[in-house]
Amino acid sequence: MHEGINLSYIGLTELEIRVLKSIFTLAPQLSENYMLLPPDQLGEADLVLVNTDDPLTIRRWTELKQTNPLVVSLLLTDSDKLNCNEKTIQRPIRVQKLITALEDIVDQTSADLDEGDSAGDLSIMVVDDSYPVRKYMEHKLAELVKMPVDIHFASSGEEAIQKNSKKNFDLIFLDVMMEGMDGYKACKSIKAGYDSFVVMLTSKKSPFDKVRGTMSGCDAYVTKPPADERLLEVIQKFLSQCPHLTGTPAKTGAS
To answer: Which of 95, 208, 230, 243 gives 20 to 30 Å between its CA and that of 55?
Structure first.
């Protein structure tokens, strides 16, 4: 799993595809944060650039949304009347225009995910500098936890500490390897002042990493990408220690 956002496209002309690829070559801030996928890999896309001036493309986009409801769209059009409900850019595709639109989408998505705070719900924060990981965890937690959940997100250890100081989260999934403050230091800081249940997320499998996680005060340790069974296991462990919360995780087909 790469540490960026999978971006693909539907219905672009050959010239527009060449321009898009050139932009990715010339703009390092795009190639560092986004992975440009061809249309035959649309199923793996987090965000799709859609030609809204072609009815066939709109039909394909509608079908994709049905199979992958989490995918986000950036609309491309010739019209000077831009769509108010979804992020839209007008042709021709330009470097700064594309970068600004993508940044706006990511910022808005992060803001939307942090809205809807509900008292009494199980409050969860996912801390990871990878957008795909945050989206994966959002989907999996909503699927596996059979009770109302209020999910928030942070992309760094510093941001996690700041957010947790304002809202003491019940459950925190905390990535180990992040730029700036790593997960171990963030965990120590959180556990020093709050009673949050912290689960370390890591791509490493070394026993030493688990020891470091334990020494930092974490309550559980999960290797990415976490299997459903392992996520259920740590959620059940958390709920068993929190009698004030009701509800149990949903059961999967295998036990």
So the answer is: 95
